[in-house]
Amino acid sequence: MTEQSFTFDGRPVAFRSGQSLGAALTAAGVRSWRTTRADGRPRGLFCGIGVCFDCLLVVDGRPNERACLQPAAAGMQVESQEGTGHGHLEV
Amino acid sequence: MGTSRSDRVHDVVVVGAGPAGLAAAGRAAALGADVALVDGAAVPGGQYWRQPADDALAGSVASLHHGLARYRRLVERVRGIEAAGGWFPRHQVWTVTREEGTFVVLAITGTGAEEREVGIRGRRLVLAPGAYDRQVPFPGWDLPGVMTAGGVQALLKGHAVTAGRRVVVAGTGPFLLPVAAGLAESGATVAGVHEAASPLAWGRHIGAVVRNVAKLGEGAGYVRTLARHRVPVRTRSVVVAAHGEQVLERLTVARLAADGSVLPGSRTTVAADVLAVGWGFTPQLELPMALGCATRVDVDGSLVCTVDDQQRSSVEGVFVAGEACGIGGADLAVVEGEIAGAAAAGTPLTDRRLLRRRLALRRFAAAMHAAHPVPTGWIDRLTEDTVVCRCEEVTVGRLRSALPLGADDARSAKLLARPGMGWCQGRVCGYAVSCVMSAWTGVPPSPVSIAARSVASPLRLGTVAATEDPSSAAES
Amino acid sequence: MAEPGSDVVVVGAGIIGAACAFFGARAGLSITVLDRGSVGGGTTSRCEGNILVSDKGPGPELDLALASRSLWLDLAAEHGAERYELEEKGGLVVATSEAGLSSLRSFAAGQGTGGVIAEPVASERLRDHEPNLAAGLPGGAFYPQDMQVQPVLAAASLLAAARDLGARVVTGEEVTGALRGADGRITAVRTARTTYPTAAVVNAAGTWGAVVGERLGGTVPVLPRRGFILVTEPLPRVVRHKVYSADYVDNVASGDAGLETSAVVEGTRGGTVLIGASRERVGFDETLSVEVLRRLAAQAVRLFPFLAQVRLMRSYRGFRPYCPDHLPVIGSDRRVPGLLHACGHEGAGIGLAPATGRLVADLLTGAPPQLDPAAFDPMRFVLEDA
Ligand SMILES: Cc1cc2nc3c(=O)[nH]c(=O)nc-3n(C[C@H](O)[C@H](O)[C@H](O)COP(=O)(O)OP(=O)(O)OC[C@H]3O[C@@H](n4cnc5c(N)ncnc54)[C@H](O)[C@@H]3O)c2cc1C
Ligand SMILES: Cc1cc2nc3c(=O)[nH]c(=O)nc-3n(C[C@H](O)[C@H](O)[C@H](O)COP(=O)(O)OP(=O)(O)OC[C@H]3O[C@@H](n4cnc5c(N)ncnc54)[C@H](O)[C@@H]3O)c2cc1C
Ligand code: FES
Question: Taking every annotated instance into account, which residue ranges of this chain make up the domain FAD dependent oxidoreductase (chain C) (predicted)?
Answer without folding.
Answer: 7-363
